[in-house]
Amino acid sequence: MKRFFGLKSDHSSQSNDYHRQPQTHSQPSYQQPTQSATTRFRAIRDRFTNLEEVQHELRRNGLESSNLIVGLDFTKSNEWTGKYSFQGRSLHAVTPSGNPYEEVTGVIGRTLF
Question: Which residue stretches does the UniProt record annotate as biased composition, category Polar residues (predicted)?
Fold first, then answer.
C-alpha cells in the first residue's frame, strides 16, 4: 500500500493550460480560521487507493489550490533497494542520522516553509 500526502491543484495536470486564469469560487470550500496559527493544524486522512481520493480529501480540507503531492512507498521493495543504497538497511530504518525518506521530506518542508 502506498500513502500519499501533500498538495495538488485541481488543474495542474493540464499542462497546455499553463497561462489559464485560476478558477474563482463565490465561497471558499473551507472554514475561515478562528484559532491561532499554532493551534489550527489537524491531521487529514492519509490512506488512499487512487489520485481521485487524494484530491477529494484535499478539497474537503481547503487545500484545492495547492500544487504538490508527495507519495511514500511503504512496500517491501524498500528493503531490497536499501541493500544497495542505504548500507544494507531498509530505506525506512530509524537511525540517528535519519533515513532517505526523512531526508527528502525534511528538504521539502524546509523549502516550503
Answer: 12-38
Residues 87 and 100 placed together within one structural domain of the fold: yes
The HSE-up count of residue 49 (CA atoms within 13 Å, CB side) is 0
- Is residue 19, in this structure, part of any structural domain at all? no
Are both 8 and 60 inside the same structural domain?
Answer: yes
Tell me if residue 83 falls in helix, strand or coil.
helix
What is the extent of the structural domain holding 54? 1-13+35-73
**Which one, of 30, 48, 55, 54, lies nearest residue 40 by Cα?**
30
- Could you give the CA distance from residue 13 to residue 15 in angstroms, rounded to a whole number? 6
Residues 6+ apart with CB under 8 A from 53: none
pLDDT tens digits for the chain (113 residues)? 444 445 444 444 444 444 445 455 455 555 555 555 555 666 777 788 888 888 888 888 888 787 777 777 778 888 888 888 888 888 888 888 888 888 888 888 888 77
CB distance 7 to 61 below 8 Å: no
